[in-house]
Amino acid sequence: MTEMAHGTVPPPRTDPLLPRWWRTVDRWSLACAVLLLGIGLLLGFAASPPLAERNGLDPFHYVERQAFFGMLGVIAMVICSMLSPTGVRRMGVVGFLIMAVALALLPIFGTNFGKGAVRWYSLGFGSFQPSEFLKPMFVVLCGWMMAAALQVGGPPGRVLSFVVAVVIVGMLALQPDFGQASLIVFAWGVMYFVAGAPVLLLAMVAGLVVAAGVFAYSASDHFARRIDGYLSAEIDPTTQIGYASNAIREGGIFGVGLGEGEVKQSLPDAHTDFIIAVAAEEYGLILVLCILALYAVITLTALVRLLRERDPFVRYAGTGLAAILGMQALVNIGVAARLLPTKGMTLPFVSYGGSSVIAAGITVGMLLALTRTRPQGRMADFLAKARG
Questions:
Q1: How many CB atoms neighbour CB 64 within 10 A?
Q2: What averages of pLDDT result for each successive group of 10 residues across the chain (388 residues)?
Q3: φ, ψ at 111 (rounded to 5°)
Q4: Cα 31 from Cα 297, distance rounded (Å)
Q5: Taking the chain, what is the end-to-end CA distance rounded to the nearest angstrom?
Q6: Cα 222 to Cα 99: distance, rounded to the nearest angstrom
Q7: 125 phi/psi in degrees, rounded to 5
Q8: Which of 79, 82, 205, 343 gives the lowest tally of CB atoms within 10 Å of its CB?
Q9: Which residues, listed in sequence order, are joined to residue 127 by a DSSP beta bridge?
């Protein structure tokens, strides 16, 4: 009778997934990530042919592989950006467990590819570096733990996140991979600071990091050589830092021209860790500043959007993802400019490597998912209502 009198109630209409995603996602950051991938391919055309020739491969072998990795990275970024915060959390927790096991098994099944650190699994057709994928998963897991600590009767999430960070840093240091370990510590520290950690506690953690660095310097010849090379007043021109520093000086403001650079002939890692040296030599300071600006847009836009968030998990995890992406870019460029010790760290989206590009896509995809526009009041209004 009710249906006869009033008619059936139509089901609520929902927007299709793609239009809703496009309307709510941070399109500026998405465009910046795609531009960085394009710059990586452009630099790959300049940096990788000499390496391909030395290895007896087609001149653009590495460019073709990077284009394939870039396509996978874009797909991963778009798919991750469509997730809800709950979906991001579930993906982060499950992904962390898988990558932590993979990291723990590296000493048994991993390889170093002659680079002195066991960081990769050899898959025959390629390689896989668990630490690259572990970073965004770690950030999401810790964000969930810290947010859970705010609930009444919730677990001691901050303490648990600290324990997890210590365990992961210990496993990375054993490879050794002090660069990735420092990123983990930095991301955790930024998230803990946003979560309201006492300054004294953060100072104590900083002291522990310094003490760990001193111990690593005395116990690891690999670590000590890199620190000594960084502190040395003179640069050995036959080292990677020497070649990179010379390339940056030669490039100047406008560069020496496309294909005219020489550093790609000398640097074995010109297409990976020192790709910024190729950019500085051939395209000059102009391109380097453009690359820095693209990372700044992604990082700062995300942080501004996160200021409006009321969900603690979104704030903590989003801040950690933005921090880890921006800091990795700064460390890579700082190493090439000899502002930091050599770390063996890739430039997200730009450096060659499947693990690096796909993991960067996942990182930015998760960040885009957490910063999507959602119906909620402004954070300032929420705080004002809470005080009133």
A1: 14
A2: 47 70 94 96 87 85 92 96 96 97 91 79 85 96 94 88 94 87 93 84 78 76 71 71 85 84 79 89 94 97 92 96 96 88 86 93 97 68 51
A3: -140, 160
A4: 10
A5: 48
A6: 25
A7: -85, -5
A8: 79
A9: 122
